[in-house]
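Q: what sequence does this backbone want?
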């Protein structure tokens, strides 16, 4: 029997853990594989270079990357968006000094946050946002996405399918949704509803957010936002200072996605 390659075995062990368990910290990988952290860092760096893994900005956890083989032979949509957008949102965050969330369409009228630059020490807002589906009615990401879905009537029809799952706070805003969407389209951006907490476990300061849609040609595939402590800065100041950079980042992510899809 030929001698087995231990490096490949170790790499496969790491991939098996992440494939079965989802996003995994270095400590979790060490516990599950029995490998030392320095060894895991080298393995994961190699797999990142090949885009079989990607590392979340928020907590350093590893997840499957855009080049990891799937049964369809194609990368998962959200993985591809993370891979193409991760450096762009970091650059935007560094340029503005604010946290940035990237969200992908879940094909049900909502978006899910797939990457973020949030850091509690730097930004003072809830950092563990990856995997969260923000409100389609009250969040900057959700409203930016909805406003990009055809006419106001079409957007309202889209969210009607979600109406049974809306919270009491969301239902209070639901009747004003057509006007809200019209305003978002006129402004070119969406804002988080004032005093809105995304979920009961939020901590730290109340956040404010400014969001725009991300397009693959003429199809909206997600949204990106700036998020900050509401008491630190009014929305109008962030709009004046950073809206153009936010829109440029959204355009860059969309263009990268389109180019990757077309093989440019």
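A:
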């Amino acid at each position: 029997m030929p001698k087995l390659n231990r490096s490949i075995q170790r790499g496969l062990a790491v991939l098996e853990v992440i494939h079965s368990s989802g996003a995994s910290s270095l400590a979790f990988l060490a516990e599950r594989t029995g490998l030392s952290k320095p060894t895991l860092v080298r393995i994961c760096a190699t797999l990142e270079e090949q885009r079989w893994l990607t590392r979340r900005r928020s907590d350093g956890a590893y997840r499957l990357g855009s080049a990891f083989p799937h049964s369809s032979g194609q990368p998962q949509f959200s993985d591809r968006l993370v891979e193409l957008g991760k450096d762009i949102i970091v650059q935007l965050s560094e340029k503005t000094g604010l946290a940035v969330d990237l969200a992908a369409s879940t094909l049900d009228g909502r978006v899910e946050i797939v990457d973020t630059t949030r850091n509690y020490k730097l930004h003072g807002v809830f950092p563990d946002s990856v995997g969260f589906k923000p409100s389609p009615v009250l969040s900057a990401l959700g409203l930016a996405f909805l406003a990009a879905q055809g006419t106001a009537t079409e957007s309202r029809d889209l969210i009607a399918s979600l109406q049974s799952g809306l919270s009491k706070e969301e239902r209070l805003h639901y009747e004003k949704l057509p006007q809200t969407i019209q305003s978002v389209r006129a402004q070119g951006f969406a804002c988080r509803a004032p005093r809105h907490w995304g979920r009961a476990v939020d901590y730290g300061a109340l956040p404010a957010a400014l969001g725009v849609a991300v397009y693959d040609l003429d199809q909206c595939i997600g949204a990106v936002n700036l998020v900050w402590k509401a008491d630190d800065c009014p929305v109008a100041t962030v709009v004046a200072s950073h809206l153009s950079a936010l829109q440029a980042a959204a355009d860059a992510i969309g263009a990268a996605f389109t180019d990757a899809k077309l093989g440019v």
